[in-house]
Amino acid sequence: MRFFVLLRRLCLLLLIAAGTPAFFPLILAAEEDATSASITLSGEEGAIPLQASATFATHTFCNGASPPNCWKSNSGTLTVSQKHPNGATYYMASKSGEGSANWSTTLDTGAMAQGTHTFVATACDSKRICSSSSQSITIDNTPELTASSGSTEGDLKIKGTVDFKEYVGGYEGYIDIYYITPNGARSYIKRKYYEGTEAIAWTWEEIAGYIPDGGKWSQGKYTVQIIAVANNGASKQFDLPITIDNTPELTASSGSTEGDLKIKGTVDFKEYVGGYEGYIDIYYITPNGARSYIKRKYYEGTEAIAWTWEEIAGYIPDGGKWSQGKYTVQIIAVANNGASKQFDLPITIDNTPKVNIVGPRYFADLTFDILGTVSFKEYANGAEGTVTMYLKEVSASSYSRYGSKSNEGTSVNWKYSDFTGARLSKATWGGKELMVQVIATAANGTTATAQQFLIVPALGCPLPLR
Fold first, then answer.
1. CB neighbourhood size of 267 (10 A)
2. Which residue(s) pair with 372 in the sheet?
3. C-alpha dist (Å) from residue 306 to 13, 299, 302
4. In order of start, what are the domains of the chain with their CATH numbers?
5. Other CB atoms closer than 10 Å to residue 454's CB: what's the count?
6. pLDDT tens, 198-214?
7. pTM, entire model
8. DSSP element (H, E) containing 198
9. Rg of the chain on CA atoms, in Å
10. Taking the chain, what is the end-to-end CA distance rounded to the nearest angstrom?
């Protein structure tokens, strides 16, 4: 006790000698507890509680009075700061207290930037003795994203799943869809926002409001870009390649080279959801090179479809009327996106008749008839051709026409009396040399000629010479 009295007197003398004020606090006791800080984080995503606490040491302070006045203080301040992934440190909060202080908040990791965040709690007591504690959390809100296409025609069935990390304050993220055309042009389709942290199924149709109809997309290689963006800006991109080839499959054939040419075939279009799959145009190129357009017909359906000239044009392709020569029938199938397939079908038309003079036939009354046959190529829309009879004496300079008759059918038997209504007689032709000429003319104008010489004796029974 005497020591403390002497000590107080010595301090008082020193203060007076130095000319200082008479009142000056003196710290006469050491710390009675340690100042400490602690900070905790609970959880990994979404709402994460952040709790900080401090315990302040008790310190004794005295003034310069004689005897001095002394007191104890356990006050202090708790300060919380956050160091961002970019290296910047930001003040969050402070709390003062006696003996201790506590502060808490809830972090929404869905809005926090990518990277490591460090939270520091610092406790400073009345003696400015400080203690710190830190806790770190690494934020990775990169979404999980899948994408696929279920088809390369019609509804492309572009779909997938997305899984966002939780954001308490609102939507977890969104998906943007773009597509890059074969010429490299990039087009924005649409955006859709999503809430929820479970894996979510998404589709192009749901996001864009319409199906991705490959039947209308032009030919080539596309890239559909699906970009999932979390609320904090973290993103994941999926590039989905899709190749569009809507070239139709086309066949064509001709079942005949006369009459109904039976031009037909099959066509198989790729699917177009929005309407008809495609159409067929028919042209034909004549032997002189002229190209003529026939007609067009639209088709719906993706199965192989049978087509015919008659169905498309509204009439049969009647080779019996086509002029002689080599034709090319062009059948062009065009898909809805413009992809096309052409089939060139060669057809050669030769409608030349075959005409024969069988010979004369005589009768008991000394009259005679001239008989023969003609073979025509078929003409579906009318008479296959005509047969015209000509006669003359061998010495005459020209023939006389004795009649013409139109015939239906491809095989014709003819006789002189069919043209004139009567047989030849000895009264007219007895004792003469007779030249017979028969001309068969097909429906397309092609002709064939047969000739025969006859000697008609006085009795009227003709004899063929050659």
1. 25
2. 357, 414
3. 125, 10, 12
4. 24-137 (2.60.40.3880), 144-244 (2.60.40.3880), 249-349 (2.60.40.10), 354-464 (2.60.40.730)
5. 23
6. 999 999 999 999 999 99
7. 0.76
8. none
9. 55
10. 174
